[in-house]
Amino acid sequence: MPRVHTRAERVGNREELTTDTSVTIEDIIGSRIAIDEETGCWNYTGSISGAGYGMYGHKPVHRIVYEIFNGPVPGLWHVHHECRNKRCCRPSHLNAMRDSDHLSLHARERRDAEA
Question: What is the pTM of this model?
């Protein structure tokens, strides 16, 4: 069973994630998802941040799930929800992208919505 990367350590000038072998994906998600039949999203029903993201401790659930399936996310990168659903933690709906690309994408979406 994949283990979860949950602890951060400083390595040089960036943060690296280490593996906490006591926590599995079942511990995080377990029965805390509701599958949306329309969108296919795996909506996290556990703790939700003020910004609307599923949280496990102090870390967003979507980022933890992404890292379990794809490995650590490089520094200054974001895990983007292709489905635009902040509570979704379905691996196929998540994509890592550079911070600058992520900000540009959201700015473009805001402009398009205002048009």
Answer: 0.73
Q: Which residues contact 114 (CB under 8 A, 6 or more apart)?
A: none
25 backbone dihedrals φ, ψ, rounded to 5°: -60, -35
For 63, other C-beta atoms within 10 Å of its C-beta total 23
Residue type, 87: R
- How far is 18 from 27, CA to CA, in rounded Å? 17
Contacts of 80 (CB under 8 A, 6+ apart): 94, 95, 96, 97, 102, 105
Tell me whether strands 94-98 and 14-24 are parallel, antiparallel or unpaired.
unpaired
Using DSSP, how many helices (H) and how many strands (E) does the chain show?
3, 8
The neighbour count for residue 3, using CB atoms within 10 Å, is: 14
pLDDT digits (tens, 9 = 90+) for 3-30: 444 344 444 444 444 445 556 777 777 7
Q: How many residues does the chain have?
A: 115
Torsion from C-alpha of 90, 96, 102, 106, nearest 10 degrees: -10
Element (H, E) at 107: helix 99-114
